[in-house]
Amino acid sequence: MTRGRGPDRDTILAASRGGVITARTLVALGVPESTVYHRCRDGGPWQRLAPGVVLLCTGQPTADQLVIAALLHGGEQAVLTGLEACRRHRIRRGPTAGGSLQLLVPHTRQVRNTWFLRVDRTRRLPHPVSRGGIPLAPVQRAVADAVRLLRSEREIAELVSDAVQQNLCTVAQLVTELDAGGQHGSATPRRVLRDVRDGIRSAAELDARRLWRRSGLPEPWWNAPVYDAAGRFLGIADAWWDDVALAWEINSYQWHLAPEDYAREQEKRARFTAVGAAVLPTLPTRLRRQPRDVLAELRSSYTAAAARPRPAVRADHPAAPTPSQQGGSTPVWLQ
């Protein structure tokens, strides 16, 4: 800006957060309202991200700039939730936030949605967790808010199972959050949570469980630790039929982040085979593209395993018996 007409650029940038600033702050610095308006017009050097929120440059805003703009738009008590909060809690799997953010504000505030932001007014405003100066909803609230807006069971499974596997939250905490938030959008997440509670760790394993239900075979133990006769740990079977010592392995290179993870899976299968356990490997893509073929292979593998003497291996049941194994009814919170 010209000397005598207001603050210089460095002063304005220093008052911003990553180049994002409120119009009110600009005016307080001495920038006339009319100047703010004209600079945000098409072809101007600034742009309006939300009502009263300005980006001090042109071009596509970064993800961080959109988050800051959302928080400035939401006000002092605003808390970031949903998929973007999950990413900042280091949940790696599941869908990306894309261009849509979720924000929680007190129910007494009137804050409008914007082109990149969904604002949820709530009486249950959580105490935020700060990550890099950004107030985030606790993990269980962020995940619960995210899955209510998802329609894909597979995406929900990836998000929820990653949070649970990293010990960022428990299934019980997620159920509590869903209960506290009401029934809207919770039916599919509750179904997935039942699967995760029973040991499902990924969307591929969710597909496997759906396919197993059509097989007519007994229910396996999902993600069961397997040991040899001397008690040496061999690995975790994705699905394990203990009566016939059969492991169904779903993992593939696509489901591992590094080559060493894939190598460990291959070594595990070799250990299973070396002690006489039967192993059926299945590519995750085949569960959806060739379900009939996979079912035939699964039934044949079980029959062949049952026909041989059972090897001296044992496995631990990774979770309490499911309602179908107990012969009981489904708990109310999972219906």
From TrEMBL:
* Entry superkingdom: Bacteria
Outline the segment boundaries, as ranges, of region: Disordered: 305-335
Name of the protein described by the UniProt record: Transcriptional regulator, AbiEi antitoxin, Type IV TA system
Annotated source species: Pseudonocardia hydrocarbonoxydans
